[in-house]
Amino acid sequence: MPTPFTHLETAQRLLIDPALPDAVRTALHDDCPAFLLGSIAADARTSAAIRREATHFYLQDYLPKTAAWRTMLKLHPSMNPPHSAAHRAFVAGYAAHLRIDEIWSDQMLIRRFTEGNWLTLHRRFVMLHILLIYMDERDAARLEHWQPQTLLTAAPDRWAPFLPDSALCGWRDFVAGQILPGGVSQTLDVFGNRTGFPPEYLREMLDSAETMQNDLWAYITPQTLAKVEADMYASAREELLRYWDESH
To answer: Read out DSSP for 212-236?
Structure first.
């Protein structure tokens, strides 16, 4: 799934998106720390030893018929209605995150990697992570200077009953620490553990124009990636607005 830096870059764009009503953008700006934390919170499960389905509300290899955020609110009615403006902004960011992951699962993970007919299944698995790292590094470079300090001021207060506040705070600090001045990204190490390859090997692949072209872009073109990402963003914005309109 897209990394926290990609989700934060999406949140950054949503905050200034003219397609969002002024009142929604103002509310998200007013509680920006909560919105940013909501945008990455689903992945806090990694620091809390919680299974993915408990924070994403669908199986990774199956796109649900019901939007995952609706399933979340149905399973956890204490989240709806939100108990504060900050809570509402947090859940809005969470809903956007879930929709991004849903579209990624459907249009990229399942359709083009799991069910793909190019290279070997293992090589596709590796190149999936190479693609995610490529997006991660691109999006980390796009994050504006205010993001880490703003994220660090998020103060969760029982915003997600399935994620303790301590887990959210730990994840907040882990992500923000990487994008603070002087911070170092941990993405290569995390994905190195996931793929079974040293971070240095993944770095070599990313820096090799030949490998990127022959093993990735020849099958998943930059145009395909751009189309999927455009669908991810538009759908995330749509679901955020749906949640916002239904929450009071």
So the answer is: HIIIIITTS-HHHHHHHHHHHHHHH
